[in-house]
Write a structure and sequence with these properties.
The chain is built from 5 helices and 10 strands; from the N terminus they run αααααββββββββββ. The protein has about 200 residues and is an alpha+beta fold. The strands form 2 sheets. A 6-stranded antiparallel β-sheet has the order 1-2-3-10-5-8. α2 packs across α3 and α2 crosses α4.
Length: about 200
């Protein structure tokens, strides 16, 4: 991991540990609730892992706080400004693509704003998110293929799409040039039905 990635991983790990301990949960309890391995959770808390967005979503949902809270200050502020280049890069590809979380709201109704770039050959397969999740995106540059429930949709610059995020979906750059797009994710009711330690929920 490079320096900025290491710093982000350490910040996320510290926040996960703080949230887990404030609930009196064990590592095993949170791992069970999130559906991740204990080893993965230990690595996340130690800042030794660069977990997938899906893994972070499962952990944040289990804690009932939403993904933006894992990368933001523990103390909510009425106004949060993210300066250019200072968002949390939570997805990177070997070829140089990036998915950056640039803004987000607190639970219970979590909204995330992402800035994505994908180079030719990049693809992200995403598992179904929590029930009721919605995604909206607009392509700013290039041609993006969005696959929702197995059906591909090809979007060119200026095109937009909205779809349920609670089904399997994927984003892919199958063209010859770079793709840039903005994406918003709405996840309602995060934390409205708190998980109990070891419930396996």
């Amino acid at each position: 991991m490079d320096e900025s990635t290491s710093a982000l991983a350490a910040a996320i790990g510290g926040r996960v540990r703080l949230e887990r301990q404030s609930r009196g949960w064990t590592l095993d309890g949170l791992a069970d609730a999130a559906g991740v391995s204990r080893r993965m959770l230990v690595n996340v808390e130690q800042g030794a892992a660069n977990p997938s967005v899906g893994t972070l979503l499962r952990i944040s949902d289990a804690l009932g706080i939403g993904l933006p809270s894992l990368v933001d200050s523990p103390q909510p502020r009425p106004v949060t400004v993210t300066r250019s280049g200072k968002g949390a890069a939570l997805w990177t590809s070997i070829k140089g693509g990036r998915g950056v979380l640039v803004a987000g709201t607190q639970s219970p109704d979590v909204v995330e704003l992402w800035d994505w770039t994908m180079v030719p050959g990049d693809r992200l397969d995403s598992e179904a998110h929590a029930a009721g999740t919605k995604e909206l995106l607009q392509v700013r540059e290039g041609v993006l293929t969005v696959v929702v429930g197995g059906e591909p949709h090809v979007l060119e610059a200026g095109d937009a799409i909205s779809f349920p995020g609670d089904v399997a979906h994927a984003y892919a750059n199958e063209g010859s040039g770079p793709v840039a797009f903005s994406m918003a994710v709405f996840e309602p009711g995060v934390g409205s039905s708190p998980h109990q330690e070891g419930s396996g929920a």
